[in-house]
Amino acid sequence: MFDFGPPFQIDANLGGPAGITEMLVQSTDNEISVLPALPGQWLNGSLTGVRLRDGGKLDIAWKEGRLIEVKLQSEHAMKYRVLYSDRSTEVQIEPRKPMVLDGALHAVGM
To answer: What's the Rg (C-alpha) of the chain?
Structure first.
């Protein structure tokens, strides 16, 4: 995935990881799509610390190709529409108070 240089090619070194991240999380200012293009070979996994376009942060985990957890947090109050497969939900994030959703996008107590 990295270029063989010199010169250093920023698009090669950062474009690959950005593309992989977009396969797992896509965000706009108020909408987040989780696992929109999960490869069939990646049955189990997790991704932590993904920065969203509006400054929020997200962690996700999946097992057997299905979402098991989404954790959202932000330094300021945010409202998101979270999408996964054919499901969606609206969530309100309070500053510095993480919100966890299960694979059905239902809030889980922390």
So the answer is: 15
- Residue 76 and residue 94 in contact, taking contact as beta carbons nearer than 8 Å: no
CB atoms within 10 A of CB 106: 10
The answer, yes or no, to whether residue 2 has pLDDT greater than 60, is: no
The end-to-end CA distance of the chain, in Å, is 38
Cα 76 to chain centroid distance, Å, stands at: 18
Domain residue ranges of the chain, discontinuous segments joined by +: 10-105
The pLDDT of residue 109 is 77
Q: What is the CATH number of domain 10-105?
A: 2.60.40.1180
| Cα-to-chain-centroid distance, residue 2 | 23
Distance separating alpha carbons of residues 107 and 100, to the nearest angstrom: 6
Q: Which amino acid, residue 2?
A: F
pLDDT in tens, 45-92: 999 999 998 889 999 999 999 999 999 999 999 999 999 999 999 999
